[in-house]
Amino acid sequence: MSSPLRAAPLAMDADTFRTLGHALVDQIAALLASVPGRPVTPDESPSAVRQALDLNGPLPETGSDPATLLAEIAPRLFDHSLFNAHPRFFGYITAPPAPIGILGDFLASALNANVGAWRLSPAATELEIQTIRWIAQLIAYPAECGGLLVSGGNQANIVCLLAARAAGAGWDVRKHGMGGPEARSLVAYASAETHTWIQKGADIAGLGTDSIRWIPTDERLQIDLRLLTEAIDQDVAAGRTPFLVVGTGGSVSTGVVDPLPEMAALCRERGIWFHVDGAYGGFAAAVPDAPEALRALSLADSVAVDPHKWLYAPLEVGCALVRDPARLRAAFAYHPPYYHFGEHGTNFVDYGPQNSRGFRALKVWLALRQAGASGYRQMISDDIRLSRRMADAVRASSELELLTQDLSITTFRYVPPALRARRADPDVSTYLDALNTAILDAIQRGGDAFVSNAVIHGHYALRACIVNFHTDAPDVDAVPGIAITLGRRLDGEQRPAALR
């Protein structure tokens, strides 16, 4: 038997791959176990991180030993990264990676399936179809819906917007665009609490951000239904075409849920596509003690949810669900359905913007199999319960002011007791914003916990979001104390003499 003529620098025999893989798994397992004892994030400058990772040199001309590369890079990455798997990570809405999801990504990479065409990825395609069906089932969305997995919430929402545009235009908008002979102004409606994906979506879709009608919110930060109805009526009277109303199923800032049942009824009456951005809060529809309005996800024409948020999947994976699967094909397909041995074979290239698509479904499918629906209901309920526990602790403090608590997000601020009675005064309010900005910076740099910020009715707030199955009561209980300790110190250093 002749010897191979080619020696590829990236090739690796089975024994070497096995040895390196086992060593790396052992190393990662030890590093993951060390996370709770590490700072949530190191307080480092970009140049310090580049220096630590040796990222300033040129592309090497010759290669390196893979065993050495892996052994060196893993601890460096852990030493110089923020850990969203840390039990005291409360910033933004990024979950820890479920261990089975980590292993699922490893297996998916080994297959390297291109889940754009069924023939290129038969097993991966069918598994994604079931994963989408299970996600719909978990949140009580019609199981016969269409959908696909995408990179995250932005893409999931934008896919649904494009489906709504194709359905609501009244002319062949995919062929003629927004400047065709029959074109009319299309209008989308969203509350002031809607995530910025809608600006990106309106831009990408050729609508322009002026096509968005920003509807004010009420005291609860929910969309004002009366103002929404008035805006729709005004646009219709002016000859414009309302094509999309966006309801928020858990806002990024506070977790508030819009009055989705009433919005669904309004859209049904007016013949407008109703979309729910449930990227964060949509999965809470599975738990009994979530806001009742989330049950109306089942009434929406489309829903976006993020498995890499409240299903704890490793980044990145979002999910777009559309009630009528034909609406997705009508928005994206350019050729007839594909048939395989007389059976319909799904080509996801016809249901979204990507041609080449990774095998995102495996990590989600494995976790759904491991935990089951009841396991997810328990974990999501625990996150909500812990957030309410934090809110109770904030409410009980004479130095903290609770601003909101919805789903698993608590917002609050530090208010020195001497200033509490005057906190509505303009000078005091400005100072409190500056003080809490400094507190946030100190918390994030300190490494003991990590929170983010929000602006609630004009007030700068500290924001703690829990989508973390590692978080427990002691982690939650530590946050108010950290904020108070830093607040006292910084107030003593920064309060103007006029406010003393």
Task: Supply database-style keywords.
single chain, 500 residues, alpha/beta, Aspartate Aminotransferase, domain 2, Aspartate Aminotransferase, domain 1, 3 domains, 7-stranded mixed β-sheet, 4-stranded antiparallel β-sheet, 13 strands, globular
Can you offer a commentary on this structure?
There is one protein chain. The longest helix is centred in the last third of the chain and has 36 residues. The radius of gyration is 25 Å and the shape is globular. The model has no long low-confidence stretch (mean pLDDT 95). The strands form 3 sheets. It has a 7-stranded mixed sheet, with helices on both faces. A 4-stranded antiparallel sheet has the order 10-11-13-12. It has a two-stranded antiparallel ribbon with strand order 8-9. Helices cover 43% and strands 14% of the residues. It has 3 domains: 65 residues; 246 residues, Type I PLP-dependent aspartate aminotransferase-like (Major domain) (Aspartate Aminotransferase, domain 2, 3-Layer(aba) Sandwich); 120 residues, Alpha-Beta Complex (Aspartate Aminotransferase, domain 1). By secondary structure, it is α/β, with parallel strands linked by helices. Helix 5 runs parallel beside helix 13 and helix 6 packs across helix 8.
